[in-house]
Structures are given as structure tokens and as C-alpha cells.
Write the C-alpha cells for this entry.
Amino acid sequence: MRARLEIDLSGLADNWRDLDGMSAANVETAAVVKANAYGLGAPEVVEALLGAGARTFFVALAEEGLALGELHDDCRVFVFSGYLEGDRDLIADNNLVPVLCSPDQVRRFFDDLPDHRFALQLDTGMNRLGIPDSWFISHRRQLLEARPELIVSHLACADEPDNSMNRRQLERFGVATQGVGVSRSLAATGGILLGSDYHFELCRPGIGIYGCLPFVAGRSVVNLNLPVVQVMEISPGDSVGYGATWRASDRRRIATVLSGYADGIFRHLGNTSCLYSGPVPCPVLGRISMDLITVDVSGLQAEPDYLQLLGPNQSVDSLAENASTIGYEVLTRLGRRYDRVYKFASGRTRIE
């Protein structure tokens, strides 16, 4: 009996379709599937997105491009980290498209793979990755003669619609790329929600596909159920867990569930969070340990077989807020020891 992570690929595909529908018909919608599709399983997620109509995908590393499963002949896979030392054969042999993000990468790539497909990333103010827009402008003719497939930049504050930096970056990107005759991409999920000015020729949603903020209309796509391995009664004055950080003031029934920080559950959620039995919240008592969590089930009529960490009563984003983090981290920390149950639009179920 192991923890069970259910992934609704039908809902995930619907989220992509909804985001796709927010831009004009002549704007392509890609999908970001880096970090093993945000922890949910890249081959399965890509299969669902292909069925929904996606044909362009973004990963962070060249190695991730090899893990996407079987793609259609008309698909493209862009690599955000660009052209790193040792990437030559991976990119050349698998027709990956590096998103070159520094002048040094541009020079090295043009020397090593002069006839290979590529894209460019411009830094328009985030100062994380990207060719300075001033360098791009000064070398624009030579770069465009090499025929990049795409020019991208990344918004630093897209999840804050009123932040003036969004408009400043939009203007810088527009000035640098005006008249390039190449597809451009500025908008991830947050940028899509900012409106059509930010969409250009290609949008690339990531977190919104997986049902998380800032896409508030997105469908939740994960349920995580943790198996109960023991229920015991404790007396007033008894403590629970390492460090005896919680002590009972009256008689309590305590369930021990089989999961912990080795499975990506934040250790500091002990004594501050809940698991759920249906709609009934069951407080976590004591510290979360590597493999086990202790939970107060005194309010339940019967001993549960499972308690739910993620689902209708506790979303990825609400758990993230309780953990003082963001949904991205909750998803990408999901552990390897879960039984993963994939539910496809066809009704087919796959268990990994």
C-alpha cells in the first residue's frame, strides 16, 4: 500500500485549450514541460497535450528533450538553457532547438552547428538569462541572416498585472524586435492573462496548464491520497513525533500515514497544516518525518484507509500558501514513491 497520486490529464488538456483560446487564432500556443512536466510526468503530459493540439514544447535542459516520449514529425522542442558545453551531440542528433541566451553561446553555436535550428532569448530587464537587447540590436542583421526560428523574452512580474515593469519589458521587447520577420514569444501563463499586447506570435503557458495560479480559472489536475498504516489512542499529556513538539490536552485518536519529506512534503508543515477525509480537516500533529506523518482523526466516525493532502479541499496553491511557497515548488517536489495514476480524456487509466 503506497501513496496514490492521481493526475487528471483530461483536465490538464482542457487547461491548455482554455489558455490557447485566450489568444487570437493566428497565435500559436506552445506548452512548457520542463522539470518532468512540473513533476507530473513528461511523457504522459505531452501525450495529452498532443491530443489537445499542442505541437511546440519547451524544456529547461537538452536532456529533458529526450524524455518527452514519441512526438509528431511537425513538433518542435525548444531548450531554454540554450547551448551548454557538452550539448552538441544531444541537440544535433535529436533536432532540439536551443534558445541561445548569451553572446558567447551564439558564437560557440554558430561555430559548432552553423546549419542547425536555433532561437534567441533577449534580456529585457529580468537580468537572469538572455542576450542584452542592446547587443541584439547592434548585431541584428547578422543574427537575422542566420534565420532564428523564434525570439523570446521573459516577464519578471507577469503575476502582478499592475506592476509597471510588465509594460516596460513589453516596450523594450517590441522596440528590439520590430520588423524582424521572425516569430516572437513574451507571454507565459501570466503574460497570456495580461492581454493581447503581450501575445505576439507564440504564447508558452506553463504553470497554468497544471491548474495553478495565476490561472484562477484552471482546473485542478492532481489528487494525492496518503495511506493510513496505524491508528492509536493517546492520553492527556502524551506527545507526538520527534522533539515532542505537540502534546495532547485530552484523549485523541492519531493516524500515522505513509509519506513524509522524502516524498516532497514540506517538513515545516508539521503542526500547521491539515490532511482531509472527505471534507473533514484532520490536523497534522508534530513534526513531519522522512516517511511518516501523524494526523488527528478524532473527529472522524471511522478509521480512514487514506487521508488526502491534495484534492478538492486543499489545492496545490492553498498548500503552497500554507508552506510559504508557490505552487511550482509543491508540484516539482512530488516524490518518486507514489503510485501515479494517469487519467486520460478517452477514459483510459494508466498506473505507473
Q: What stands out?
A: The chain has a mean pLDDT of 96. The longest helix spans residues 164-177. The chain has two domains: 8-210, 222-314.
